[in-house]
């Protein structure tokens, strides 16, 4: 049995992703939105998807609310990516957080974007206990973003 958590986007989510991506590519960031570019792990082709870049305690993070998505798998293999808003490009290297490091980041992510991503958290919100956030942590990959100069 496969215990890897992945939620396939619905049609409404796909439309929202395309809209956010279209705006972000044109330089309009919606509450921290970026377009993530990462090489496909099989094709080597550059893939893109909209993401929310979270700044928390002076560090930046990418959270995967739908779980083990293609961008998560690709980023693990590629070991680098780009975040873009309009013409501004930030190259970065990712460091994946272990589950015990995730509760505070998940809490802040939910505080900021629950209205957008709450459907992927099964009723868990920013007021959840650290214990509850630690319990759900394995289903939510999180990467610390380190900008490459």
Keywords:
149 residues; six-stranded antiparallel barrel; alpha+beta; globular; oxidoreductase activity; Split_barrel_FMN-bd
CATH classification class: Mainly Beta
> Helix share of residues?
25-40%
Shape: globular
Please tell me the CATH architecture by its name.
Answer: Roll
Largest sheet: number of strands, sense, barrel closure: 6 strands, antiparallel, barrel
User: What is the count of DSSP helices, taking H or I runs of 4+ residues?
Assistant: 4
Write out the CATH superfamily name.
Electron Transport, Fmn-binding Protein, Chain A
Instruction: Write down the overall mean pLDDT.
Output: 89
CATH topology assignment = Pnp Oxidase, Chain A
Count of discrete domains: 1
Task: Output the radius of gyration.
Answer: 15 Å
- Please give the order of strands in the largest beta sheet: 1-2-3-6-5-4
Structural class: alpha+beta
| Annotation, overall tally of beta strands | 6
Strand content: 25-35%
Low-confidence stretches: none
Summarize the structure.
The protein has 149 residues and is of the alpha+beta class. It has helices at residues 11-25, 70-78, 102-117, 130-136, and strands at residues 33-39, 46-56, 59-63, 81-85, 88-96, 142-147. The longest helix has 16 residues, at 102-117.
Give a verbal description of the structure:
It comes from Amycolatopsis pithecellobii. One of its GO terms (molecular function) is oxidoreductase activity. With 149 residues, the chain is an alpha+beta fold. It has a single domain, classed as Electron Transport, Fmn-binding Protein, Chain A (Pnp Oxidase, Chain A), CATH 2.30.110. It is built from four helices and six strands. The protein has helices at residues 11-25, 70-78, 102-117, 130-136; strands spanning 33-39, 46-56, 59-63, 81-85, 88-96, 142-147. β1 and β2 form a beta hairpin. The longest helix is centred in the last third of the chain and has 16 residues, at 102-117. The radius of gyration is 15 Å and the shape is globular.
């Amino acid at each position: 049995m496969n215990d890897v958590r992945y939620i396939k986007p619905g049609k409404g989510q796909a439309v929202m992703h395309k809209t956010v991506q279209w705006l972000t590519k044109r330089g309009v960031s919606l509450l921290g939105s970026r377009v993530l570019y990462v090489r496909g792990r099989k094709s080597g082709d550059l893939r893109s998807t909209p993401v929310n870049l979270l700044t928390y305690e002076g560090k930046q993070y990418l959270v995967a609310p739908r779980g083990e998505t293609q961008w998560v798998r690709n980023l693990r293999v590629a070991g680098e990516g780009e975040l873009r808003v309009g013409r501004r490009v930030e190259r970065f290297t990712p460091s994946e957080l272990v589950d015990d490091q995730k509760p505070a980041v998940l809490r802040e992510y939910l505080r900021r974007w629950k209205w957008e991503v709450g459907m992927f958290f099964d009723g868990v919100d920013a007021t959840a206990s650290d214990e509850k956030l630690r319990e759900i942590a394995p289903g939510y990959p999180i990467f610390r973003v380190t900008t490459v100069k």
